[in-house]
Structure formats: C-alpha cells, structure tokens
Amino acid sequence: MNEPSPLDKAEAAVREASVDTAAVQLAFAAMELAKMAQQQPAVQQQACSHQTKQGRGAGEWLAIACAVCVGGVGIAFASIAIAIGGMSVAILALVVRSMWRDVQKGR
Predict the structure, then answer these.
(1) Domain membership flag for residue 54
(2) Residue 4, phi then psi, degrees to nearest 5
(3) Considering the chain, what is the average pLDDT of its residues?
(4) pLDDT score, position 95
(5) pTM as predicted
(6) Closest CA to 63 of 71, 73, 52, 53
C-alpha cells in the first residue's frame, strides 16, 4: 500500500533529472569560466609585448652614493688647495710690494 505509483516514480525521476541537469549546467559554466580565466592572461601578455625598464638595484645605488662621496671629497680638497694657493700669492704680493717700496726709498 505504501508503494509509490508509476506516476509518482516518473515525477521523482523528472525532478532528479532536472536537478542533475542544473548541477551539470553549473559545472559546465564553472569549467568554461576557468578556461576563460586561463586564456585571458595569455591574451593580455601578447597584447602588451613591450619591455619595461626595471629600476636600479641596491648595488647600483650604493655605487652612485660612493661616487658622489668621493667626488665631494675631491672638490673639498681642490677648494682647500685653491685657498692655500690664493693665500700664498697674496703673501708673495705683500712681500714683493714691501721689497719694491724699500728699493724705491733707496734703502
């Protein structure tokens, strides 16, 4: 008496088939989406084929900093040498002027 009728069995089979069909369609849609996601970076990579120039590395920045420091010390020594040379010329000019005055006075 509790046995389902053939009509009930057919309705249950139709419901199961419709649920399976929706699940299968959802699975196929997910697979297509995954395929498209894998193909999209390849397309973007082909479209953008120029090479970007990478920035300087830490070693290059260290070399630049060392070159600037050495150049700064060189400029400092050069300015000191120019100052000493200028003072020497000034002292020499004072001595020669003093000697010239003594010669002019007849000493």
Answers:
(1) no
(2) -70, 150
(3) 80
(4) 96
(5) 0.42
(6) 71
